[in-house]
Automatic annotation (TrEMBL):
<keyword id="KW-0732">Signal</keyword>
<dbReference type="InterPro" id="IPR025932">
    <property type="entry name" value="Trypano_VSG_B_N_dom"/>
</dbReference>
<feature type="coiled-coil region">
    <location>
        <begin position="266"/>
        <end position="293"/>
    </location>
</feature>
<dbReference type="GO" id="GO:0098552">
    <property type="term" value="C:side of membrane"/>
</dbReference>
<dbReference type="Pfam" id="PF13206">
    <property type="entry name" value="VSG_B"/>
</dbReference>
<keyword id="KW-0472">Membrane</keyword>
<keyword id="KW-0175">Coiled coil</keyword>
<feature type="domain" description="Trypanosome variant surface glycoprotein C-terminal">
    <location>
        <begin position="326"/>
        <end position="428"/>
    </location>
</feature>
<comment type="function">
    <text>VSG forms a coat on the surface of the parasite. The trypanosome evades the immune response of the host by expressing a series of antigenically distinct VSGs from an estimated 1000 VSG genes.</text>
</comment>
<dbReference type="InterPro" id="IPR019609">
    <property type="entry name" value="Variant_surf_glycoprt_trypan_C"/>
</dbReference>
<keyword id="KW-0336">GPI-anchor</keyword>
<protein>
    <submittedName>
        <fullName>Variant surface glycoprotein 2036</fullName>
    </submittedName>
</protein>
<keyword id="KW-0325">Glycoprotein</keyword>
<feature type="domain" description="Trypanosome variant surface glycoprotein B-type N-terminal">
    <location>
        <begin position="3"/>
        <end position="287"/>
    </location>
</feature>
<keyword id="KW-1003">Cell membrane</keyword>
<dbReference type="GO" id="GO:0005886">
    <property type="term" value="C:plasma membrane"/>
</dbReference>
<keyword id="KW-0449">Lipoprotein</keyword>
Amino acid sequence: KDEAWNALQAPFKEQAAPYEKHWTAWTKSVQEDAPQNLKAKIKQFSVLKGNTDEMKQLTFIADSALGVAEKAAQAIQGTDKAAIDVHLNKALYGSAGKAATLTFSGKPRKQLCGNDANTAGEQAGKALLSDLLCVCAGATTDGTGGKTCYGGCDAAPNNGNWVVTNAGKERALAIANKCSEALKTQDKSTEVLNARLATFYKAVNNAKGSGQEVKHALGTPEGDGSGGCTGEGVSGSHTGRCVKYNDGSIISGTPPIEWQVNLRNAADAYDKRHTAEIKLAALEAEISLLNATATALLWAPKAFAAQTSGSNQQQTTTPSEKAKECEAIETDTNCDSKDFCTFQKESTEEKKCKYNETKATKTEVSLPQTQTGVGTETTTKKCKGKLEPEKECKSPNCKWEGKECKDSSVLVNKQFSLMVSSAFAALLF
């Protein structure tokens, strides 16, 4: 258990062949530092050690379960929520993510947002919130808009000019929080993003200005837009609240709009996470099925037979062999439960469990078929004809039903066989 698979030597390596595929996982499960709950679960199956057929089936089930665990690990790679949030924060705030303050030093607003009708702003397309400030943050003189692109935003932190050398993060978030609830969504899929981007491209491709001089821009430039995106929306000033994008970014995607790239990355990660959730649900059902199959294997009658007497035990056939078997039994209950033994408590001999030829003759017993796997039936009449449940219906596989003593092992084996067949048919097909 402490060696790597390649280090194993014959003949043990040949004996351990069924465990090769997941050897590392198997060995970890029996290490001293293995989780206690795992040790307890493995210990439950120790009853199967004497039964080769059941052990082979259990190995197959466990190997399949380890395969499911590997699929689950692969399915969730790169799908954690944190990865989605990283892309979303970069789309909102820029390359610095949530730590950004949206402070820009030494440059006027129009240089950041759009210098004139034909010159893109240096910050245009870098981050959604900086573009929002260009389009919506109003000047002190803005009365009708309430110091933004729509009313109701003239309270702090938006009660004055947007000074680009000061942190603009709080102002941008205050404006963004005024967006209509109907536009907000928890669905971050590529499908939803494409629908939102279609709206963006429709708006940005709509030329603006009195003579449609300003192309590939958002906002409200006045006149011919030659004064740039200064934030002053005064009629006739040729300025306004706007953001002017690079023509190539809109027409051909070169250079790409950075916040759009980050949104697509977030949507892609979201799609993978959603796909992983669907796959994990299917794998969960598969592992539950394997667990139920293993549990049924544990409680199958053959497992208990293996625990007490071992598998494929040679059938006692001659009277002398049966007599020896009876004499080896010490308790009256175990003795009387045998089809050919009787406990003679009045006997003065040390061994009181004796072979009873009359009892053996009355009880018809057929040899059990060779146990070749799950569901092999044991054909027996040992319970038939016993009419007193309290006195004679004592065999481990006998069960009193109505007025008859019936062999319960046959029914249980049939049910178990059907269950296992159905389980593995579901796994394979």
